[in-house]
Design goal:
The protein is an alpha+beta fold and 141 residues long. The protein has a single domain, classed as Sufe protein. Chain: A. It is built from six helices and three strands. Strands 1-2-3 form a three-stranded antiparallel beta sheet. The longest helix is centred in the last third of the chain and has 21 residues. It is globular. The two termini are 21 Å apart.
């Protein structure tokens, strides 16, 4: 299984690792059965994601996709962050092996989950904005 230099770099030197104590939104996706769990923390100011941190328990691809996803949404509006697809994360990493695509789906879901939590804390129903945040399909196999 070959990983791109970008995947290896984000795995060896992940960006934005940690947690935000007073996060405006926290999302957790994945489960122990599939072996990958991602927790994403966001700080929002004026509709802009000003800070994002993550903690990921999983394989190198899971760490790399989490790291890249945080880089792609920091400084962006919530609307832009919601448009981030797993495909964009994979492309930003110069590709992933097919068996690891589910990691990028988890990264997308973790962001949506954190944004959902942010809206809930504001007293806003997130479902019409974010949609349902479920587990990734890979977790069901």
């Amino acid at each position: 299984m070959l990983y791109s230099d970008k995947v290896l770099d984000h795995f060896a030197n992940p960006r934005n690792v940690g947690e935000i104590e007073d996060a405006d939104g926290i999302g957790e996706v994945g489960n122990a059965k599939c072996g990958d769990i991602m927790k994403m923390y966001i700080k929002v100011n004026g509709g802009i994601i000003t800070d994002v941190k993550f903690k990921t328990f999983g394989c190198g691809a899971a760490v790399a996709t989490s790291s890249m996803a945080t880089e792609l949404i920091v400084g962006k509006s919530i609307d832009d962050a919601l448009k981030l697809t797993n495909k964009a994360v994979v492309e930003a990493l110069d590709g992933l092996p097919p068996s690891k695509i589910h990691c990028s789906v988890l990264a997308e879901q973790a962001i949506k989950s954190a944004i959902s939590d942010y809206y809930q804390k504001q007293g806003i129903d997130p479902v019409p904005i974010v949609g349902e945040v479920g587990d990734c399909d890979a977790c069901h196999h």
